[in-house]
Amino acid sequence: xxxxxxxxxxxxxxxxxxxxxAERTVVVAAHPDDETLAAAGYLRAAAxxxxxxxxxxxxxxxxxALPEHDDLDRAALGRRRRTELHSALDRLGLGDTPVHWxxxxxxxxDADVLAPLLAPLLAxxxxxxAPWALDPHPDHAAAGRATSVAAPVSAxxxxxxxxxxxxxxPDDPDLPWSRAHRHDLGDEDRAAKARAIEAFSxxxxxxxxxxxxxxxxxxxxxxxxxxxxxxxxxAGGSAPASRFAGLYRDGNDPWDVRDSWYEQRKRDVVLACxxxxxxxxxxxxxxxxxxxxxxxxxxxDRVSASDYxxxxxxxxxSLAGGLPGVEVDVAALPGPTALPDGIDLAVLSExxxxxxxxxxxxxxxxxxxxxxxxxxxxxxxWRGWPVEAPADAATVHARFTDDPRxxxxxxxxxxxxxxxxxxxx
Length: 425
Fold this sequence. Notes:
alpha/beta; Rossmann fold; 2 domains; 15 strands; elongated
């Protein structure tokens, strides 16, 4: 591996990916071998984790490799590459892994054609891996874009680079290092991956006398480091209300907010960090089941609680709607019903990271407009990355803490959650 890439991985990628945190994992590849080069260790770990079902979808047969040789039997090369993939899976100990062959044309992959073919194959997956949508190879880029469109909102989505290592620099401004995670391979997995890569002899050795290999040693070196790189592929817009409606349906408590120690402790910390003993008018968008609403009512003359899920609103109204000054309504950020004019406190807990970038920006602006001077804003979010969320807690909090219209009063980096208390200037 080039020294600059090795340094970048050492210094910029601190978070790890958990291959066992799924029930059904689907790996999309543009060509046979993409999945092995970039994710064989992940595949092996996922397949060996209890309860995880692994499947592979291969968009093309890779028959257009080495286009400069117009005398190659392309159909035969495609068949050979299919055989090589199955051999590689055998060497990984994954010979029974289902492989879905789509047979689309190599080097002409169209994301608009691929996406509807992927949709039924990804429908109930809770983890999807695909090539990085900015990888220098156009087929990889198309496969990444198509998977982003086809994957369900309930699935964790990851993208893996293949030709990035040789076609880009670690300092390229569009590399999403803030979303980078790694998977570290043990000695056994690393050796199995090396054997699996050797199965792709059509790629690692010249196909014709005097010709070149698609994957020469300097390229293969990037895939033998014992570390695999994945970029989180978040949804582009705000999480849909339908997703939360399904989670809350029939009185469900999807995040165990009533009983979990995480939720109880976080509520206690939020209340303890409120700078004022009492507030005139608080807004609590994303009120969920109303547990925090009930506590805020004791510290405020008036609380405007809201959620954009009907079942959550009904639950909050049942729990806290009868308390003096509590109003509960259906509303979504950044709307004026969620953040009424003239509030002196806003509490946004486990809600902002579900907003798309534009809605986060509009929420910052709305709060700057509606909070009275000297009013307080509380942000509290889990430090993980919810599956439906376009960004993590650190990213969305920075949009507020970096805004010159707010002063930071409290910053708390807990093991499990991130909290900021800001004051409107």
